[in-house]
Design brief:
Blueprint (H helix, E strand, L loop, with lengths): L1 H20 L15 H4 E4 L2 E4 L1 H5 L9 H7 L4 E3 L5 E6 L5 H18 L2 E5 L12 H9 L5 E5 L3 E3 L6 H5 L7 E5 L8 E9 L2 H12 L8 H13 L23 E4 L6 E2 L9 E3 L5 H15 L6 H11 L5 H13 L3
Parallel strand pairs: 4-5, 4-6, 8-10, 11-12
Antiparallel strand pairs: 1-2, 3-5, 6-9, 7-12, 8-9
Helix pairs in contact: 5-10, 6-8, 8-9, 11-12
C-alpha cells in the first residue's frame, strides 16, 4: 500500500515538472491565430472580454519577427486616413468601459484638427505583454504619416486648444518627443504618450527596441530608454541595467526631447487644469470612468450623446465585430440619461 502511494506521489511530481518545462521549450510554442471576434470574444454582462487563454499566453522570451506579426494579426480601424499627423490608440476589450468615453473625446479632437485617428480594438500580438503592442503599433503606422502620436488608452486629452503642432514646431531636428516619468528615480521616461517623427532613425530605434533580448515584461519604456542611451553612448552598454537613473538627463540624445510631465503626459498628482493630456496610470477603472466623464463634460461633450456614439461607430467601419460594438456602445449611450 505504501509503495502505491509513493509511486502515485512520484507520478504527480513528474507530471508537474513536465508541464512546467513545456513553457520554456519548443514543445508548447504558442500558436497565435488572427483575432476573430466570432470565436475569441464573449459577451457577458454587457462587457466584451478576450478569450482567457489569450490573456495568459504572454511569453517574455518569445520575440516574433516583425515581418510576421505586423501583417498577420489584428488590424486597426482608420478614420480620416492620409493626414500628416495621426494619433494611434490600442485597447483590449476588457477596458472598453472607459475607452468608449475616451473615444468621444478623441473623435472631437481629431475632427477639429484634421488628424488621422488609428484605433486598435485588440492586441496586435497575443504573445507579448500588452504594453509591448505600442511598439508594434508605432512600427506599423509611422511610415504613413509625418508625425505619429501614441496615446495609451488611459490617457485623455484635456485641453483641445493645444495642437500637436504646438509641440513639434521649432523642433525640426527632434525625432522623438517624450515626457519624464512619475518614478523618475527608476524610470527616466514614460512611453504612455509619445510623439514620433517619421524618420529612418526613429523607425530603427523602435525596431531595435522590439528585438532587444531583454525579457519583454511591463518594461517597454525601460527597454526603449536602453536603446536611446546605447545609441548615443555605446561605450556604456555594459553599465546599463533596468534602472537607468544614472543616465536620466533631458539632453541624453540630440534627436530626442524630454519634457516635464505637464507638457503632454501629466500624471494625476501633478495635473494642472490647462494641461494638454492627463495620463490616469495606476488609477482604478471606476475612477478613470468618472474623471474622463468630468473632462468631457467640462469640454462640452455629452458623454451620452447618441450622435457622438454613432460617429465612433462610423470610425469602426463595417467589420465583423461591429454588431457587438454597436450593442455595447448603444448600451453606453442610453445609460444614465
Amino acid at each position: 500500500m505504501i509503495y502505491d502511494i509513493i509511486i502515485l506521489f512520484l507520478l504527480i511530481i513528474l507530471f508537474y515538472i513536465t508541464n512546467n518545462l513545456k513553457k520554456y521549450t519548443g514543445q508548447n510554442q504558442y500558436k497565435l491565430e488572427p483575432f476573430n471576434s466570432d470565436n475569441d470574444q464573449i459577451i457577458s454582462n454587457n462587457n466584451i472580454s478576450t478569450n482567457e487563454s489569450q490573456q495568459n499566453d504572454y511569453n517574455p522570451y518569445l520575440i516574433e519577427d516583425l515581418s510576421t506579426v505586423l501583417y498577420k494579426y489584428t488590424k486597426p480601424y482608420i478614420f480620416n486616413p492620409g493626414k500628416k499627423i495621426a494619433i494611434v490608440l490600442l485597447y483590449t476589450p476588457n477596458i472598453y468601459s472607459y475607452v468608449s468615453i475616451n473615444l468621444i473625446n478623441l473623435s472631437n479632437y481629431v475632427i477639429k484638427n484634421d488628424y488621422t485617428l488609428i484605433i486598435y480594438s485588440n492586441l496586435i500580438s497575443f504573445s507579448v505583454f500588452p504594453c509591448w503592442n505600442k511598439i508594434l503599433a508605432v512600427l506599423e503606422n509611422l511610415k504613413n504619416h509625418d508625425y505619429l502620436m501614441w496615446l495609451d488608452a488611459d490617457a485623455i486629452i484635456c485641453n483641445h486648444g493645444i495642437k500637436i503642432e504646438n509641440i513639434i514646431k521649432d523642433n525640426s531636428n527632434i525625432d522623438l518627443f517624450l515626457c519624464n516619468d512619475i518614478k523618475e528615480e527608476y524610470e527616466c521616461i514614460n512611453s504612455g504618450v509619445m510623439i514620433i517623427k517619421n524618420t529612418d532613425w526613429s523607425y530603427k530605434l523602435f525596431e531595435k527596441t522590439w528585438y532587444n533580448p531583454i525579457e519583454h515584461h511591463h518594461n517597454d519604456q525601460n527597454v526603449l530608454f536602453y536603446e536611446i542611451v546605447k545609441d548615443t553612448k555605446p561605450e556604456v552598454e555594459s553599465e546599463l541595467s533596468l534602472k537607468f537613473n544614472k543616465f536620466c538627463k533631458k539632453d541624453i540624445h540630440p534627436k530626442i526631447k524630454i519634457f516635464d510631465q505637464n507638457k503632454f503626459n501629466s500624471n494625476i498628482y501633478c495635473y494642472l487644469t490647462d494641461d494638454f493630456i492627463i495620463h490616469l496610470m495606476g488609477v482604478s477603472e471606476h475612477s478613470r470612468i468618472n474623471i474622463m466623464r468630468q473632462i468631457n463634460t467640462r469640454l462640452g461633450f455629452d458623454n451620452h450623446d447618441d450622435k457622438v456614439c454613432l460617429e465612433i461607430l462610423s470610425y469602426l467601419g463595417n467589420n465583423s465585430d461591429s454588431d457587438i460594438k454597436r450593442s455595447i456602445i448603444g448600451k453606453f449611450c442610453l445609460d444614465e440619461k
